[in-house]
Description:
Helix content of chain B: over 70%
Strand order of the largest sheet of chain B: 1-2
Radius of gyration of chain B: 24 Å
CATH architecture of the largest domain in chain B: Orthogonal Bundle
CATH superfamily of the largest domain in chain A: Periplasmic binding protein-like II
Helix content of chain A: 40-55%
Structural class of chain B: mainly alpha
Strand content of chain B: under 5%
Number of strands of chain A: 15
CATH class of the largest domain in chain B: Mainly Alpha
Number of domains of chain B: 2
CATH architecture of the largest domain in chain A: 3-Layer(aba) Sandwich
Largest sheet of chain A: 5 strands, mixed
Number of helices of chain B: 12
Structural class of chain A: alpha/beta
Number of domains of chain A: 2
Order of helices and strands of chain B: HHHHEEHHHHHHHEEH
Number of helices of chain A: 21
Oligomer: heterotrimer
Distance between the termini of chain B: 47 Å
Shape of chain B: flat
Radius of gyration of chain A: 24 Å
CATH class of the largest domain in chain A: Alpha Beta
Amino acid sequence: MRRLAVIVGLVVLVVVSGLAARKFEGVTITVFTQPPPYIAKPVMMFAPDWEKTTGARVNLITAPWGELYTKMYASFSMGVAAYDIVIFPAAWLPDFAAAGFLVPLDDFIANDPYIQWDDILPVYRERIVSWEGKIYAVPLDGDCHIFYYRKDALENPEYQAKFKEKYGYDLPVPPKTWKQVRDIAEFFNGWDWDGDGEIEYGVVEPRRYAGQADWCFFSRAVGYVALPGQPGGLFFDPETMEPRINSPGHVRALEDYVEIIKYGVPGMINMDSGEIRSIFAAGLAAMAIDWGDIGVISETGEESTVRGKVGYAVLPGSDEVWNFAKGQWVKLPEPNQAGYLAFGGWVAGIAHNSQHKEAAYDFISYLSRPENSYVSVTTSETGFNPYRYSHFEKLSGWIGMGFSPEAAEAYLKAIKDTIGHPNVQPDLRIPGQARYFEAVDRALSRVVAGELSPKAALDEVAQIWNQITDSLGRDKQLLYYRLSLGLPPK
Amino acid sequence: MSTKTIRQGLRFLRLGSIYCFLIAWSFVVIAPLFWLITTSFKDKLDVYLGPKFIPWLDFRPTSKWWVRIFTIEKDTLLKPYANSLIIGSISALCSTLLGLAASYALTRFCFKFFFMKNDDIIFWFVSQRIMPPIIIVFAIYSMYQTLGLLDNHLGLILVYTAFNLPLSVWILSNFLSQLPRSIEEAALVDGAGPLTILFHIVIPMLSPSLTATFLLCFVFAWNDFLFALILTFSRAQTMPILIAAQHFQRGPQWWDISALSVLAVLPPVIITIALQKYFIKGLIPIGK
Amino acid sequence: MLTPGVLIVLLFSIFPLFFTLMLMFGQVIFSEGKMLIKFAGLANWQRLLQDQRFWNAVLVTLKIVVIAVTAEYVLGLILASLLYQRPFGSGFFRVLYVIPMLLTPIAVGYTWRMILDVGRGPIAGLLKRAGLSPVGWLTDPHVALYSIVLIDVWQWTPFMFLLLYAGLEAIPKDYLEAAEVDGASGWKKFIYVIMPLLAPSSIAAFLLRTIECFKIVDIIYITTGGGPGQATESLTLFGYNVGFRTFDLAYGATIAFSLFFMVLIAAMFFTILTRSLRGIRLE
């Protein structure tokens, strides 16, 4: 009798624990993002283990970048969601959240012991994924622009001496103002300064329409218009919602943006943000602006000739900053450099019309938890850049990727300094972001082609921005803009 | 010098200049193809660091991209290739057959649809080709969403059939209107019904045109980008989309793009070579 | 017999046409997760006709169509005439010349983007070796449009070649012999006998190729993206950019419809030409 009871007890135990361990048995969740490897690779990396533990299935569907927004919108407006989880750029969160497309995640996160929400850098967990006080997505990737330069060029004493002769000041390493960048670019443009038999050039930056050049422009503008203590310099006046895109600071940044093409890799105006990365890694330019990808490709990619030769820094700025309150330029003793959280990063959200919300959240949490996300950001070709404190503390993953310890430290320091900068500027996070940026993108390509002058182009953009603001409701946009800056409503 | 020699000399000159032009144009055609093929054998740095022309002279060719496509990337590659083949051939077949039915009817019977007579109906067919796909694409997307035809073979087959049908009608109705009716009339007198006439008399006479139509419809379906882009996600992905997807976060992956493009052009080329004879004969009466 | 064909084309043209008309005269709003279309009268059309970008796209498209189709015709005619004379190896040439047309336009775009690259393309390399300065084939606003024409001509001359070759083959040999007996030969024969007999094929070729060329988008999208600035933005690309980058479907539909309108006019022109020619030829 006793033995029977024990056996029955064991069987029950096994059955119950078996059931408990596979909590989403039979469920299939669909994840939608852009084609592998970038962004989709981590999903593919972690899905098998998660599937084994939970009994669910992960169905990955992808579409080219240009289609993502359209297709997500379409899925949200269907009766039953085509996609349960959408991994999308944080910049689209306001549009999706405001339209009621995403599930608020506060309760899920509160009850989740694994996600370690506080490990995520404040700027990402508070500013990027929340909307009107609720959290709508989980960060999977941290984005900001940093500045790259060739140490073997800028730190070369012979070149430094020649530079000083020509320009009258010491070659700053790293440069702190865009004017210095211009001089350095001119100096290193058009000759073979690394002795490999190829001609090198000053800079390589994206300029192609629909090639993410608009973020490059804002990175160049941020130093001119983001005066500490005056929020909202980059985009709109936080009191009136008047566009600031055509301020003298922006105009000057645009003039720099056009001028530097002269000292850049030939054909630069046709290059998008992806192409410039490989060009820099192939050793053809002395300086570049990008997210964290150039660092990874340069230190670990097979097309790289610059391993160990790359320097990392916060974006240069300007010692002359436009003061909006006073309506004039002010000269600062130290150059004003500000971080710019370009793009905001890729985040994962759950569709409001998903039928498997718990399973979806479970998978997202699995992707984001510290141990797994560390692997994601230190594996090449995932496209995920660090966003948690824990990502910056351990170097082993970076070194395993192919970084030398010095390079890993310098790379992470630049990113951390940018994200943690006191004057860090978030990206535009209000509904219609895609439309506002599209107007800028077009204007940039026209100015670069010589069809419009910088001032005329930006004035036109300001007009279009006003039209967009009015069509979406000026008061609402003002409220959302203030919230995105961390300001209280008026 | 006799007139004969002069004439022979002139003939040589003429032949020579003919060949000059032919060879020049051959070079124009081959040169970009050569670049495409050699790039699929180049290392990344050979592409980024300046033009490298001749394999083994300017750079060391590597087969690693090809190997990767057929081993690691096998699954990502094989599915779009198979999809393109299935969708392309079935839709071309449907376009050809439906076009045959429609053109036969339009050239043998009299129709009147409101104010539209036969000629006008044919023009209406052709005008569907004029519709820029971009108009259609959004509408079809929402249509398919409701019908559940997104991202599957049937959806694309229907779309391509519908859009290549005008081509098929245009070509076939032109040829059919030139066909001497005497044979068909004789068969009618002998008591054969219209379907018999169609299958036993007209189709054999038409086989060159039918092959030409099939080939053109196949090529247009095989190479389409816009519809495949909008109406599929991943299950029914076709070759052009796969090629475009090689444009990663690192910039265009020139080597992969080149290799895939070469693969993508093989079926149409093979079909063209095989059907060469029919192709020319089939298009003859166009425009008459 | 006619019904299945008509039905399927109807299905794919009636609803989209209707949908486009609705969009053209309306405005798209997204609220509570659903897409609604609000009536807006002629607002879209007003905006379009006053939009400098629209007129630029019209000009770009017209330039490309006129130059490319004409060049393709001339080259196709030359090739067809040469191969008509059946020199040795004409079978090989025939197949070779068809190949560019069989490549998917996306692949053609990428190929030429590589070839015309300012720094790293083969043409740039050759120019450098000859000591000439580099040309911004795709980056110079004055040159970019002609580069697009060049690529289109490379890809689609085979189309013209095939149609014209077939047309030549269709000319009954007795006509040509009769002309030679009458004393016409060489150039005279070509201009006064062959060309008129080739007219129907020529017009058909022009019609088909023009219709397709008006819709040019793939090649431009891959090589220049419409740039530099607006130098190569064709109408279809303009519509695509508006529709997909800003999701302004109503305006995108308006642009697409204006393209449809233009092509329809061109097609009607050619069709009327064909019919009047048919009338003339009946003598």
